[in-house]
Amino acid sequence: MRHGIDDLLTLMQVLRDREQGCPWDLQQDWDSIVPHTLEETYEVADAIERRAFDELPGELGDLLFQVVYYAQFGAEEQRFDFADIVDTLTTKMLRRHPHVFPDGTLASRRPPGVSAEEVQTQQVNSRWESLKAEERAERAVERPSVLDDVPRTLPALSRAAKLSKRAARVGFDWPDARGVVAKIREELAEVEEALAAGDQQHAQEEVGDLLFAVTNLARTLNADPEQCLRATNAKFERRFRFVECELSAAQRPLTEASLDEMEAHWQAAKAEEKQSTHS
Question: Maximum Cα–Cα distance for the chain, whole Å?
């Protein structure tokens, strides 16, 4: 017997039941679950990047469970329930896809024989952004901004990319990647100036500006800075583990190995990766 969404919702209700529930689940609230939500999101991303598709159903289930948690909190406080979440999402997606659902209903879907390729991508993107802008304006209490609803809880790199992307849509951007590279050089020079002046606090501020500029370069190259950095993290970990293994094979503790020794093994790891890539 396969379980369905109703079973999952019932499970959550029981876990949160004051008499029958789980003590840990009963202690949770809106704020305590947020870190778990972020962690589960990254575990989904990690499984996809590793192409561990056999793990993906479990990871996606863990992420879905976070949504069910919030739905339960909402229901307990009589704010909303899972059905409200589904209805709100479906209504929003119907509204944002008039090229597929002209009347904003599932019944008005694009007729057979008209392929997605025949829909003008540029017009679709323009309409999508226009609708999102309208939604932001409706939610804004004061003056609306193109930067509204960029979540503050996003990882800093991802938020920087989203902020700069929003600004770029209204023309606040460099004409090409060369302009961003020039900005990176400018910010790096300011870091060096602060270091030369012995002003560590100013240097830290300038490092933030440097990171923001590098994030813009990733965006200009149509790359996700979070994915870029995760790939580099994986590469660093892989190469450093190689260094550890080589030193261990030579019975050389890390603490006793010189920087030159470690660098030699590091370069060997790079060479080995390069050879395997071209083989």
Answer: 72
